[in-house]
## 1
Amino acid sequence: MREPIREPTPQEQRTGRGPEPLRYTGPAPVGEAMPYSQGGLVEWAPTWGGMFVSLGVLFLIGALGVAIGVSSGATGVAIWGAISVIIGFFVGGWFCGRTLNYISPLVSAAHGLLVWAVATVFAIAFTLIMALVGASSVAAALRTVFPAGLVVPSVSAPGAAAAAVTSSWVTFIILLLGVAACIIGSVVGNQSRQTGVVSR
């Protein structure tokens, strides 16, 4: 007598089927690299990285300016300071924007501004400490990067108010150029991550 045919149990059906092959659907356009986290929009790792890159490039170009002798006159200091600030903050902003986890012009511009602010405060504090300790060579190199009126204020002689005003204006213009360069560099670095059309 033959056994009756029985239907396979669900467990047997699951174990009897093999794995389905993966299907390649082609590259998709890049959108958000990572959604906003609940902790906030600020990413400190790219910000600190951009700050250190900015300061490294600034000190490197400042030391080059001292080596080639551009720190001998006020005009040379101002021009070299503007050049070094633009290059240094652009590179630092580009690094920050390139390493952000989110592709957005607004977020990258905000991080570029943050890189500039943190780097400026850090550089001023470090330079003042070096000046107080008496490291004249480091202070001289930093005076090339930042105008003397910003970082290491000198004792003004009587009747030097016009020179102080001029130094303040030069400092303001150089810092403004640094802000613009850092923001533009961050946006350019962030947008260079795109391989497709990105909304936002």
Note: The two ends are 74 Å apart (CA to CA).
## 2
Amino acid sequence: MQKHSNVSEAVRNGVPVAPIAEIYWGPLTSFKAEDAHDEMVKAINGRPEVKLLTANVHNKLTGALSGRFDIAIDSRSGDGCGMYRSLMFVKSTGEMHDIATPPLWFQFKEPQDVIAKVYKFLTDMKFFENLDAFTNHAVSRTEAETRGQVH
């Protein structure tokens, strides 16, 4: 896991965002398409044999849940699609904000390879240490429900 030196908290569009210093993820478990982000559903459209898996992401320093990696694997083709997704709750307003990266496609041998490749892509672009720069894609829970992103 990469270490990042940025430990300050940022506020973007009223959403408090703290950079994640290091992360780890747990084992993959199955989940249903109705629980997938709309962008993941669009990405896997037309692939009838795709299996959906998710792994919770934790902050290594605090153990706090920091999001999850959702992946779709197509064993026939060896294609895997993955995204990082985080629901952030703002205590002061009671709002839930949904942040998701675009789904990214990679070749894989094992399902964990998809997570590792998404993680590397995101760390190379300093996603986890600069989360404040990405919260402009955050939407309130009400907006997410209206758009069908929260099921």
Note: The chain has one domain: 10-146.
## 3
Amino acid sequence: MTPLNIRLATDNDQPGWDNYVSSNPAAGPYYLYAWKTAVEKGYGHKGLYLMAEDTDSGFVVGVLPLICFCLPWGRKSLVSLPYCDYGGLIGELSVQQALIREGQRLAGELGVYRMEIRCSQEHSNLLAQEGVSGQVISHKVSMILSLPASSDALWSGFKAKLKSQIRRPEKEGLRGYMGGPELLEDFYRVFTINMHELGSPVHAFKWFKAVLSAYNDKAKVGMIYLKNEEPVATGIVLFNGQRVCIPWASSLRKYNRSAPNMLLYWQFLSWAAENGYSEFDFGRSTPGEGTYRFKKQWGARPEQLYWYKLGLDGEKIDCSDSVSKGRGTAARVWQYLPSCIADLVGPRVRKYISL
């Protein structure tokens, strides 16, 4: 076995970290060091990014990005990664095992009661660690679309019904734009309204500002406007290697008849194809539900997600449906809050929700 040096990455290690994850097909945009920077600046949670180096060459051979997620009453967990679909271990099996052992040691040092490792691939070795009890949640999937070399080729592969749905908003005069931080206020206006209607606390404006700043030229904001320049649909995409991800997208329900969401996604997909990306990640869904069907109509295929919840020092892990049922009740209550209260309180609550 190659001798390894496992240590916490510093800001000076960002180029080496990013070079490694950008060259690894298992890594998407969330693995970039920018996610650590955004989480720290946007919400104040501490990033603890473990990197494994070959002792002889000094090259990075594996990573485990962790965020110390601290709740208001003091309980801490290590999450890889919060606010997105996946993080987890990258590297050969022996490197993974060394990284997770170091993660456990670090957890003990910090007084952390559990770890949550969200993976886009199966890592059954996580449940076999000494002193760890845990479960895996695997009922969610990522919806991935393979992209051709051009938007024309992508368009020609769509069914007639899908093409008609994309043309509809254009015929009604809706127009799309791609940009950066200059579109953030319009993005947040739409996003805030949509989250309230869904019954979900909204992310802080500061969070999105931190994401765009940290990702810089690896992030884009997409907007759809009516003729009168009112923003009606929006999203943010992040990209790395060959993959584009869309972690956040929203549209205003009262304009659903005009299908602005269809134009928004077509804008992102055509941009990704024209800029040489080979995969578009629509994000996580539950098979059979509405968002799953929406993503599938574009030709996306499901890829299993594996979220490992690991209890440390005797901590018991509960992955039952009771938590999901509780969320449903909370969502219904949140929908009835006045917008002014939801918009004020939402970001303060959202900081502590790792999903």
Note: The domain at 4-139+305-326 is CATH 3.40.630.30 (Aminopeptidase).
## 4
Amino acid sequence: MKKTAVILFPEFCNYEISVLMEILALNEKPVAFLSSKIEPFRCEEGMKAIADFDINSINIDEFDSLVITGSYADGLYYNFGDETLLNLIRLFNKENKLIAAVSSGPMLLCKAGVTDGKKIIAGVEREWFLEDPKMKLTEQQMETLLDVNDLEEMKKNGATPPEYILDGNILTACGWKFREWAFAFGKYFGLECYPLSFGLD
């Protein structure tokens, strides 16, 4: 069984990947934690974590998937300036390996330029990325994005917003749908997910 790569970075959000990590553990799917620097990071919740491998040291042929959690501004600023991480995203996409991003994580996919023609969803407001000079994106880069305002508009019009979007090799969701996103990941690889264990029918 090939490995899943999980990206660690300052201010990463641990709870958004908690269910996914448990699903991977229950199915004994190997995981490697990666970062651009092998040094301790604190997640949003305050726990300290350190990656197993430097991004540049891995053999991508050993992996079938890449996981990117969300973060608040400081973590996003760190990632938007991390060309090593952006290149890794491009490489996984070129090899058509699953890229699973949640909450604000999908915005890195826009920055990396891998979302052309593929719908994504993120728990952000696109205006932030149009206005913030540290995370400047264009409307074109976010053309396929469903943001929180789009979801609210869908609700007003009587439509049910998607719990997640799987478009080709890209799986995205808002942070509050982290369980559904994790199950979609598991389903993609044929893993047992045990929804009752995580409070879902």
Note: Residues 163 and 180 are 7 Å apart (CA to CA).
